[in-house]
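--- STAGE predict ---
source: upstream dedup step, 1 unique chain passed
mode: sequence only
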Amino acid sequence: MVPEIPELSRFRVLQMTVPRVFSIRTRLTNGRARKQDIMRLTQRAVTLITMAITAPALAATTAAATASASPARSTSDAVTACSTVTATIPLSPEPSWVAANPKTNTIYVGLQAESVAVISGRTNSVAASIPVTFFPFGVAVNPKTNTIYVTNGDAPGTVSVISGRTNTVVATIPVGNFAFGVAVNPKTNTIYVVNGNDNTVSVISGQANTVVATIPVGLAPGWVAVNPRTNTIYVTNGADDTVSVISGQTNTVVATVPVGSQPTQVAVNPKTNTIYVANGSGDTVSVINGQTNTVVATVPVGFGPIGIGVNPKTNTIYVTNLFDETVSVISGQTNIVVGTVTVGSDPLGVAVNQKTNSTYVANLASDTVSVLGC
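--- STAGE serialize ---
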């Protein structure tokens, strides 16, 4: 008889085993993951999951999940954002995280075949596939240099540097253990990579393709976002329910902001200097004022929010809800959910293409990308 593993926190499962999360999805929603399920993961992922065994217990039942998945929304606000599914792009295997280059109208999606798919925003079709190393977790773009950065969640981790002109890997940069989230400051040509097992952020010079600094942050960091206008970096720390605020000028943590339970992805609206944090276990989004570094609102969303993207043009926020297969659409003006869009199974990453006002959602279990438009 195979012994059961102690219950795992939803955040640690999402963070450490997202590339195979759909394989244990049924038992997760019942509150327990069995060892035989986890053995379906790769050998490296098993090593990562054992680090999460001591995390807080997940006590979600199907009934509780249904109860917690009813977001508050405005009945008076019309859905003015572009939030209708206008296309569904077949993409396999297991699309996970997404980034968009609005200058070239190109979208990049990490696949668990150790590759990155290149999607034309004009035709919504796959234009190329780029091999990378191990599982591509995070994807980020520097529109100014037309360069794409992909984290490979190995131990030690690496970052694949891709030329958007040639669709080839031009450099591979060693970083810390289990490289996860990645973000770019186009103004300074600097890249920030979260090292989940080291509780650090690697700072990479985009000109030299080398690590120039390593910044200690909170416990179990997962995701990172940048406000290029203020040269400020935001890192979610899933084990201590905080966001580390980093000065891009000094490469030091200048503030720590308490947020909701087990924060996952983070996104920034540079126009309003507002930061949005998806709280994976709290089923909410924390809204942070970038000037005061305080939470000014908490927005209920769907069940298992994990991915988050912002359209600064429309001041709209898109949140993927992993366990109810939807995207919550939030008005940045009112901090209210103004729409809920059904997408594919196990939606993870989301990215906004500001050139077309289209939003791309990677559906892990459906092997598709949903395109939300007007």
